[in-house]
Records
---
Amino acid sequence: MHHSGSRSAIKELLAATAVRSNVRVCGWVRSLRRGKDVAFIALNDGSCLGTLQIVVAAELLQISEMITLGTGACIEVRGDLVESPAAGQSWEMQASQVALMGGVDGDYPLQKKRHSFEYLRSIAHLRPRANTFGAVFRMRSALSFAVHRFFHERGFLYVHTPIVTTNDCEGAGEMFRVTTLDPLCAPRVDDRVDWSQDFFGEKAGLTVSGQLQGELFAMAFSDIYTFGPTFRAENSNTSRHASEFWMIEPEMAFVDLAGNCRVAEEFFRYLVVYVLSRCREDLEFFDQRIEPGLIDRLEKLSQAEFHRVTYSEAIDLLEKSERAFEFPVAWGHDLQSEHERYLTEEVFAGPVFVTDYPEQIKAFYMRMNDDHRTVAAMDLLVPRVGEIIGGSQREERLEVLEQRMQAHGIDPDSLNWYLDTRRWGSCPHSGFGLGFERLLMYLTGMENIRDVIPFPRTPGHARF
Ligand code: 4AD
Ligand code: MG
């Protein structure tokens, strides 16, 4: 009986416009109240935040099953959807049949009280059943779809760039090694590992960015994007860094830095408007429980224009501030997150693009400006999260690119395929990377990146 007949999603039943007879629902018990002759079950199946109240006559419940029917149990119910006499809900279900699929013992860790997010991380296998995580992961799924829709509507080609790669795009040395060599007896030449005997015949790792391969495709298809997992072995244990995260990287031929910022802004706004209209119930939950004022903030954001400031202007603003920063402010040093937050939270009180950074603090592929000191880079900073997008116009001039590679200690021969695109049919092009988890943090109000990714990977943690 368990798998026969069609199942109605609770979301659909709660939105019903008329009574319905003989429906079948399945889900997990959120709470159970036993009266003398009836029991009330709040049932959730993940299709929405809400629960459906199931009214069960006591004689329908088998004595043997009663013992393990409690919060967390999985049940299948058949019955009629009727108007609810209770306040605060339109519909309830009068059960005619209840079957216990999976009972629970008394130690079910997700009892109805509030748990800390730290504790819930330790039970990441069960936390998808908690309200907050239901809302987070429904929104994550909806937003993934919105990302594809945005680019699809604009004719961008979706490219699957490789996960295993031999290039460290950002040049920051944060790649996880992929090898089949035995660490205890790896082949050596002199006192070094001989990677030529490894599986791929050279040192390989997990991608830190699909950008370089994305550029190759942009120089054939004009507008492309990637959306996939990204890995960084940086040992930063912050609430904004994960070792495995998802990134969206559009790359556009014939677009300069200003055009790049415009697309980023349009994209960002599109995603905000999308969740405001499609994820209302979950947003209301975040507004009430996670970040008061969230919906209002997002509504303003969907109207506001993003600010733009150059790195040099930003340094001036920071130097003029009365603030005692932990890290010194000086032209030529990268902005630390305290600086970024001051700019976006206090100076601009909203999203701001910082552009044209000193060339020595940015990756080799960014286009050299005419001042020969800065590159056509852009970072989008937003309140609370800090950097959410990083991008640039790319260096399309072969000689300048080779010079920058040398200056950054990158052997041009190791990226000869990348340089080939500058030899044959080079063109101005730009792109950016949006960190998907940081976007989710910004749109939900969740404060830790570990709580917006299903199974977070961070230094010391790869359980589940
Ligand atoms: O600024 P990043 O390093 O830029 C790039 O990777 C470029 N190749 C993008 C491009 O131009 N195509 O990273 C882009 C974004 C950051 O702004 C941030 O949102 C996110 O990726 N990000 C991380 N998110 C979570 N955990 C980490 N460790 C992250 N590192 C970067
Ligand atoms: Mg960056």
---
Amino acid sequence: MNNPKRVLLLGAGGMGMAPLALYLHGAGVQVEAYDDRFREPLRSHLQSAGIDVLSESTPLNKPDCVIRSSAIPLNNKGVQGWVAQNIPVYQRGEFLARFTVKKKFLAVVGSHGKTSTTGMLCWALDQVGFQFSYLVGGMFTDNQLPSGRYVKESWVICEVDESDGTIDYFTPSVTLALNCDWDHVDQYDSKDSMGETFRTLFSRTTSSIITPTNSELSEWAKLENESLLSTFDLKSEPSAFLENNIAAVVAAGKVLEVDLSTLDYSKFPGIERRQSILHQSPTRTIVEDYAHHPTEINAFLSRRRLVLPQHSLQVVFQPHRFSRTQALAQNFAEELSQADDLHLLPTYAAFEEFDPAGSVESLVGYLPPRLREHTNIFSDFTQLCDELGPTPLENKKDQILFVGAGDLEKWAHGFSAWEKAKGNKLDAFSYYLEKKLSKSTILRSYEPLANKTTIGVGGSARWYAEPAHSEDLRSLVEACKLFNIPRAMMGRGSNLIVPDDGFGGLVLRLRGKFWKEITFRAEESLVVGAGARLNEICSFACLNGLKGFEFLEGIPGTLGGALRMNAGAMGWETFDLVEWVSFLLPDGSIREILGTDLNVGYRYCREAFDGIALRAKLKSEGKSDHRAIRKAIEKLAKRRRSSQPREASAGCIFRNPEDVSAGFLIEDSGLKGEREGGAVISNQHANFILNQGGATADEVISLIQRVRARIKESKGLILEPEVTLMGKSWNEYLS
Ligand code: FAD
């Protein structure tokens, strides 16, 4: 493989790929990184390091090669697109092995503790001023060191993962092997086959093999190449793993000819999700750990018991992968029996198909009766919070341990936010989001909304956010789901009435550069962010000589609102333009859906009710001279000016019944000019209600009720509102 100049990383938000992005960027490679599930603060770290973080999987430039995370299979549609273009696609491990083949490479391997040991080794080497490159599969808790770094002509320190089989590509100078327990049962059918992988790695190692003294690893190393072997002593009790990590680190230091034995390891900041203390008070401690194998669970629980012997041990466990849970169910149950109380979450699939044989229920039968009778399985976070209960009093201390490698990180952080807010669900939501959002995202409490709508009525939002990008939007949406908090979208607020009592949940508004982007595509189309104003799209298209966007002039909304409402004017509708829309769906996934596959009708798009429109590709009717387009726009604007009032309103209040306009029916029923407080039916366009100063939402709504009743009475027709009511259904108000 020739060293590439430009690479595309797919799945770059994972902790295998992100350090690789940093390492390659440091090596002078132009890196474009894509993930549909990026998280903060990782995304910001990559961006501030100078890496191009993409919002779409299509890079700005054609890459020399594509590197995919093991979580993205080769048959993935996006990956196959690159294969079809003859762009080489590598799995992360394979690429890294090839890229570093000529470098002095220290590989940290083993079934458990690779990330903690590699992190500690890198921290220690950094402390003594050793110059080296590294990749660590986790983030340092104090963020002082990045998770990946490149230093020219130096050693590369890296954990090498056996789970996806790419370990077979590596030929390290030094191998530091920590342990070998049967795991990754989809890849290895027995402990022997896993051991064989480590043995063959030893046979390829060129200068040193470091293993625990008198272990099976040292025996295998002797068989392969005894002259390279050096060892370190391990304490046998499982709770001694920190001491054992230090022993391994010091032994690696010796091989690198650096003395790491005198450092104060209590200053090691630790790696996130590795025994991280999330909250501590005199009576309650909350700890999170990535343990997902019985051996790791035993080590973690027995250590916590030693650290706080007076605290009851409350364990929240989420099994990781159906295959592992099925194969090791009895061992899991045995180790989890150390808990005083056990709380289970459903098995985290990690890309596996659902398999009942590996579901969390399969563990319960192996638990001792003491636990079996009281252990519940939770899929609702607030129920778990209720079960774990409020902070215990003086004489009843506890430590709550969140254990697993899946997504229980959300639950752990959610619960510690809950604890910090002293069980107050409302503030826990803000605490939880504090560290999950990038700095440029706005999150406020009790935000007035009237000034954000065109009609200018209504109360405040309990929470209000302007996410800086899709990942923060997703974090906000996920937090709502976790805490059971309702959410509502708001665009320009030009077809929206906010009730006077406001909205008790989170209001989301897509404002700022990221959401307003309009880019020109070769096929005479535009890709437009959902926060772009319709008149900006119209002007951009005109400037670029693209026909078909003229009707957007004068509709005062954003693209997001126009997609949800299928806004239209003068015979055209928004969906006449749409090729595809990218949505954030309620399950947290982002999907591009073709316009032809969407359920769209007069003033609605069903997918935008639950989903959030993020951006869309809009196709033109072809090219034309921009002066001709401008003329057409001016003609439409003139018509609009003559027919629509300019005062504060929410646009058309009612949908047009079939074959007749709502405005005509209202005018014909003599309702023009009728008033309720500051709210008045427009004399110019009877389907508009104007706020002539100081109107309330209640006044607007009672005028709507009056119009509806009068039309029913005079015309025998029921008018349905077009305008949306934030957080409420019109059924509550209209009989
Ligand atoms: P908002 O009013 O803020 O929201 C409308 C709905 O869309 C809400 O339910 C909201 O939750 C949802 N929403 C907002 N963003 C998103 C998103 N990203 N994803 C999913 N849902 C979202 N309409 C016409 O069709 N034709 C007209 O000619 C017209 N003329 C108007 C003239 C005036 C003076 C006014 C005040 C309004 C007019 N309208 C018209 C109504 C309005 O401008 C459109 O419906 C517009 O598309 C609404 O966009 P918005 O950004 O203001 O959405």
